[in-house]
Design a protein that fits this description.
By secondary structure, the chain is of the alpha+beta class. The protein has helices spanning 8-28, 30-33, 42-73, 81-150, 154-177, 184-191, 211-231, 272-279, 325-330, and strands spanning 181-183, 200-203, 208-210, 240-248, 251-259, 287-293, 296-304.
Length: 340
C-alpha cells in the first residue's frame, strides 16, 4: 500500500480499470457460472481499488463495475432491481470500510515516521545540550581557577571571576535569543557594554556566528577591554579603540586597534592570557593574533561564520579538555601587566 493515496484523477483511473477488469472476468466466466452471482468478481476489485485509491478509487470502481454489470451481465429490469440495489449498497459498504482502514494505516505510518524524526531530533538536542553543559562547566572551572591563582587578593579574585562570568553569560543570552547563533555586531556591543562606549569606534557589516564562537569572542573582548582600561588606550583620556571587521567569504577579519594610550612595552613573560588568544577560536577554525606595538595593542581575529561548518567540536569552546589545557583554553587571564 502506498504511503499516500494517489491524486484524484489517478484514483479514478485506477478504480475504473479495476471495475472494467472485474466485469471482463465475469463476462468470460459467464459460460461457467451462467447467471448466478453476477457480481462475484466485483467485490475483490472494490476492495483493492479502495485500499490503493482511497474513497475516490473505490467509488470509481463501484460505478464502473455497476454500469458494466447492468450492460453486459444483468440488465436493469423490475425483477433485477433489488439485486442491483443490493450490490450498490454492499459495494458502498466495502469501499467505506476498506478506504477508511487504508487511510488509518497511512496516518499511522506517517505518525510513526514523524515520531521517529522527533526522537532523532531529541537525541541530537540532548547530545548538544550535554556538549554545551560540559563546555560551560570547563569554562567556569578554568575562569575560577586562573582568576584565583593570579589575583592579588580574594576581593580581586572575586571581582575578576564575576566580571568574566558576566561577559560569558551576556554572550550566551545573545545566543539563546538568536536561536543558536547571533550577529557579530551584537556580540561586540554586549561584550563592551560595561566599558566607556564613547571611546570605541565600531564598524562592520552583519555577520552571523555560532554559539561557541560567540562565547570565545566574549572572553577575548572582555580581556582586551579590561587590559585597555588598566594599561592601554582606555587608561588615558585621549585614548581610543577602533573595532572594525570585513567579511571574507565564510569568515570575518576583525581588527582591534588601540591608539592614544600610554607607552606600551611587551610583557616580559607569556601567561594564560596569551594562551587564551591562541585557543579561544582555534577549535572552530578561527585565529587570534595580538601584538604589543608602541602606539598600543593591535589584535587581528579571523572569525568563522555560522555556516562555515567548523563549530561543533568539543571544547571551549572546542576540543576535549585535558587537566592542563582546560584552564588555558577557557579562562580569560589576569590583566596584561600580571599575566597577559
Amino acid at each position: 500500500m502506498p504511503a499516500r493515496a494517489p491524486r484524484p484523477w489517478q484514483s479514478i483511473a485506477l478504480g475504473t480499470a479495476f471495475g472494467g477488469v472485474a466485469v471482463g472476468i465475469r463476462v468470460v466466466a459467464d459460460t461457467l457460472l451462467g447467471g448466478n452471482v453476477p457480481f462475484l468478481p466485483m467485490f475483490p476489485a472494490l476492495l483493492l481499488a479502495a485500499i490503493l485509491g482511497g474513497y475516490v478509487g473505490g467509488a470509481a470502481c463501484l460505478v464502473a463495475s455497476g454500469i458494466g454489470a447492468a450492460i453486459f451481465l444483468l440488465p436493469l429490469a423490475a425483477d433485477t432491481l433489488a439485486v442491483h440495489i443490493g450490490f450498490w449498497t454492499a459495494g458502498a459498504l466495502v469501499v467505506a470500510v476498506a478506504a477508511g482502514m487504508a487511510d488509518s494505516v497511512r496516518k499511522l505510518r506517517l505518525s510513526e515516521a514523524r515520531l521517529g524524526e522527533a526522537q532523532a531530533q531529541l537525541r541530537t538536542l540532548v547530545g548538544e545540550l550535554a556538549h554545551r553543559n560540559r563546555n560551560a562547566l570547563f569554562v567556569i572551572m578554568a575562569i575560577v581557577r586562573q582568576s584565583a591563582r593570579n589575583a592579588a587578593s580574594p576581593a580581586e579574585a572575586e571581582k575578576l571571576i564575576n566580571a568574566r562570568l558576566e561577559a560569558l553569560l551576556r554572550a550566551q543570552d545573545l545566543v539563546v535569543q538568536g536561536e543558536g547563533g547571533t550577529d557579530l555586531h551584537r556580540v561586540v556591543a554586549v561584550a563592551l557594554a560595561p566599558f566607556d562606549r564613547e571611546r570605541f569606534d565600531i564598524v562592520g557589516p552583519s555577520f552571523q556566528i555560532s554559539a561557541d564562537v560567540a562565547g570565545g569572542l566574549a572572553l577575548l573582548f572582555h580581556e582586551l577591554a579590561t587590559n585597555a582600561v588598566k594599561y592601554g588606550a582606555l587608561a588615558a583620556p585621549q585614548g581610543r579603540i577602533v573595532v572594525r571587521w570585513a567579511v571574507e567569504g565564510q569568515r570575518a577579519r576583525l581588527d582591534w586597534v588601540e591608539r592614544g594610550g600610554p607607552p606600551l612595552t611587551p610583557p616580559s613573560r607569556q601567561g594564560f592570557g596569551a594562551r587564551l588568544f591562541e585557543v579561544a577560536l582555534k577549535p572552530q577554525g578561527g585565529t587570534a593574533e595580538r601584538r604589543f606595538e608602541p602606539e598600543g595593542v593591535v589584535c587581528e581575529l579571523m572569525i568563522p561564520g555560522s555556516g562555515s561548518g567548523a563549530d561543533t567540536v568539543d571544547g571551549v569552546i572546542g576540543t576535549p579538555f585535558s587537566e592542563a589545557a582546560a584552564p588555558q583554553a577557557a579562562a580569560s587571564s589576569a590583566v596584561a601587566g600580571v599575566a597577559p
